[in-house]
Amino acid sequence: MPVPWFLLSLALGRSPMVLSLEKLMGPQDTARCSPGLSCHLWDGDVLCLPGSIVSAPGPVLVPTRLQTELVLRCHQETDCDLCVRVAIHLAVHGHWKEPKDEAKFGRAADPELEEPVNAFLQAQVVLSFQAYPTARCVLLEVQVPAALVQPGQSVGSVVFDCFEAALGAEVRLWSYTQPRYQKELNLTQQLPDCKGLEVRDSIQSCWALPWLSVSADGDDVHLVLDVSEEQHFGLSLYWNQIQGPTKPWWHKNLTGPRNITLNHTDLFPCLCIQVWPLEPDSVRTSICPFTEDPRAHRNLWRAARLRLLPPRGWQLNAPCSLLAEATLCWQAPGGGPCQSLVPPLSWANVTVNKTLELPLLNAHPNLCVQVSSWEKLQLQQCLWADSLGALKDDMLLVETRGPQDNRSLCALEPSGCTPLLSRASTRAARLGEELLQDLQSGQCLQLWEDDLRALWACPMDKYVHQRWALVWLACLLLASVLFLLFLFKKDHVKAAARARAALLLYSAEDSGFERLVGALASALFPLRVAVDLWSRRELSAQGPLAWFHAQRRQTLQEGGVVVLLFSPGAVALCREWLQDGASASAPHGPHDAFAASLSCVLPDFLQGRAPGRYLGAYFDGLLHSEAVPALFRSVPVFSLPSQLPDFLGTLQGPGAPRPGRLGQRAKQVSRALQPALDQVPSLGKDGLTALEGPGPTSSLGPESLP
User: What are the residues whose beta carbons fall under 8 Å from the beta carbon of 674, sequence distance 6 or more?
Assistant: First the structure.
């Protein structure tokens, strides 16, 4: 990869760095050495023949590092060319040997010399240069005194001036010795153009060059071309890809001066700008100002696409080369991070726009490729989701093979790789024996293997089905229990609903008593109470007898009860009916449902059909228990409000609440009745006192008629 001469750290809105170069006068090549060394440059160029590597007979000089510097070779003050100065650093390679018959230090051995005090270590160093269309090789002879020789240490350097090259060219350098004792050194570098050097007044080809600057204005980037009026020049924007040829993006021939605007979304690290005058053999200036721009790098990753190509290929598409790493991972269903796998893909820089092979034996939808940059996940794609389907609930087994056919297995889970047949509380540990049997019976798919490891994908469908079968069985049992409870509750609610229907019959004494009856009917809520006070319109339209028949039939069909509310007037009407039914056949008033109902009520009592269908009640202080006709004592008769708890319990039937709650309910009803009781002359606060100190709660027994 070419190494740039300088870092064009072009922060938008600032001027680029410019290099000032040393000038060398004259066309001759020269060589000079560091102190302690002597060197000589052979006249003319030599053939570039590196030859094969041979063993060193003893200590030898070898090049260890190449260093370059740009200078100007000038024929006149304003007529210069760009030139490359090369410094070759040398070191001693090898160790001394006992002198035998061979030559040492380039001359015959003298057995009388105990040590080579006046000897020199000599080397012939070849320096090769290539820059299209030029290729040169020069030879330098270097000598170092033996006193300075220390094996493995540097002895100095030799500097060559210089190789001429064109602006913007790519140069390649090699250095080795003759004979060659090691691999040759090499260096590739990209020379700057007129824009990066202070050479506008020294190199004639730069005089007519359009000068370009880059500046920023918010989200926009401005390319400002400093070109004289009506000068014609070419401008090209291109993507400079290290891996592959450059890609032109925009090219146009223009006339200066010009100011061109780019949107920040068009920026990429490899976006370069080239400008040149429209003249024969003109020098082109190129800059790539966005290599360090964070916006350009964000745009590059947004534009990058990861493609998976059946059967086992993958490709990363991007406008520029990317410094990225790719890994293979396993994505379990249900979310969570994708777990890295062996075999790892190449950790070297990913080659963009090139199809690479995945090292797999078989494909699986849970296998994915991840592309990361600076340890940050950028892209992830699972294998051919369109053709292989959705992620599977398979267990990935990692097999490790040891010597003597020993092997160990573990299952990849979110917590790590769990050994099979372990005591861990994970799904793989619980199903360890079953998974091992599946692997041995060939039910698992082999994804990859080498000499030491292998990957297997084992289906978990049957174990999931077994688990869900137990869950469904438990759900069915729970649903059955809930259904039975619902039926039981429904029957209970129905029974409670039937007990809450009541028809309240009374004889209208006066307005105060009617208010008392209305207060009682309201206080019995949520029981469904029917009373003629609330149905005067229907009563007038149908007549008392027809209204009573309809209400009585509906109440009894719903399992309700008819409540006879006795008062002095009601007792008098009953006595009249019992003594002479014909004289009492006509109702006493247009709204007197009680008088009209006696023609239906008395037969039920006389024929024994009243128990379970009727209740009796009277108010304390308004009527004595002995005043209730004996015929009506065949059903429970309660004194109100002293016997309200028993009255409410009998009225609600089987669905009545517990005695404690009945007591609280009775107190609420009694408080609701108290204002109406106070307005009845023969009653008063004795009613509430009677509730707080109730008398006998048993119903009145049958008595003979007076």
Answer: 685, 687, 688
